[in-house]
Amino acid sequence: MPLLDRKGVKIYYEDHGHGPPILLSHGYSATCRMWNGQISALVARHRVIVWDMRGHGESDDPDDPAAYSAALAVADMAALLRCCRIDRAVIGGLSLGGYMSLAFHLAHPEMVGALMLFDTGPGFRNIDARRAWNERARQRADDLEARGFAALGESDEVRASNHRSAKGLAGAARGMLAQADDRIIAGLDKITVPTLVLVGADDTHFLAATDYMARKIPGAARVTIPDAGHASNRHQPAAFNRAVEDFLAGLPAAT
Fold first, then answer.
1. What is the largest CA-CA distance in the chain?
2. How confident is the model over 44-59, as pLDDT tens digits?
3. C or N: which end of the chain has fewer Cβ atoms within 10 Å?
4. Which helix (H) or strand (E) holds 179?
5. Domains assigned to the chain
6. Is residue 160 pLDDT above 70, yes or no?
7. Predicted pLDDT at 164
8. Residue 243: which of 252, 229, 232 has the closest Cα?
9. How far is Cα 142 from Cα 126, in angstroms, rounded to an integer?
10. Cα atoms found within 13 Å of the Cα of residue 224, Cβ hemisphere only
11. d(CA 255, CA 248)
12. 111-114 contacts: CB < 8 A, separation 24 or more?
């Protein structure tokens, strides 16, 4: 089982196939297993790397609250690429994974050949909206600590996932799901790499965010997947994979 040691925190990852590399990051309370349908579709032409964020899946769930943050997640992504001897990759993710992909681009633009942003948003300019989001993240953490895995509900992402502890997910909610500032949304118009912005037609919470990102990111390609909700890759895998493959096929050879 491949594990990357990040100062005592073990990060689980998988490295599939050969070709131009892609790093895919899962959503909050999901794991790398959510990408099984994409690995099988893409692996013939691409090297596909998936991983479990801190507190998720087979990665460690440290007790220290300071071991969970967006900055550490971004650093884990960079360390993972370096571990795999990859200088530059297509960076993609769904929901929290999409937000982390944007954060990764902000921190390491030289390592990003293209972006794929699925059913996600860029955070909030409005401080009251950000406070409300963060309060929901804190409430989610409190609920996980009080009720354990029962607090996760029965979403498609959750049903496809197994985690070490509810404690790790609570730490991730407070440290990674919560947002500290508006740096991500403020930097959208400075993105210069090819970008795919995709959303399920029924993912009502992220339709406006998708429209906003498609307008702000220069030259972004926008795709809506019919009859799909937040886990668009699982609800309509054929349509999702076709959109991703079409985007990848149109990238310059040097990407």
1. 50
2. 999 999 999 999 999 9
3. N
4. none
5. 3-249 (3.40.50.1820)
6. no
7. 86
8. 232
9. 25
10. 13
11. 9
12. 111/78, 111/81, 111/87, 112/88, 112/193, 113/20, 113/88, 113/89, 113/193, 113/194, 113/251, 113/254, 113/255, 114/90, 114/193, 114/194, 114/195, 114/196, 114/247, 114/248, 114/251, 114/255
CB 188 within 8 A of CB 214: no
Task: Take residue 98 and report the two structure tokens written for it.
Answer: 């999409």
Tokens (6 digits) for 29: 């309370």
Residues 79-135: pLDDT tens digits?
999 999 999 999 999 999 999 999 999 999 999 999 999 999 999 999 999 999 999
User: What are 242's two structure tokens?
Assistant: 């076709």
DSSP for 75-99, written as a single string: HHHHHHHHHTT-S-EEEEEETHHHH
**pTM confidence score:** 0.95
Residues 122-147 pLDDT 10s: 999 999 999 999 999 999 999 999 99
CA angle 46, 47, 53 (to 5 degrees): 130
Q: Locate tokens 């668009």: which residue?
A: 232
**Helix 70-83 crosses helix 96-107 at what angle (to 10 degrees)?**
70
Residue 154 pLDDT more than 80?
no
Residues with Cβ within 8 Å of 165's Cβ and at least 6 positions away in sequence, in order, are 55, 61
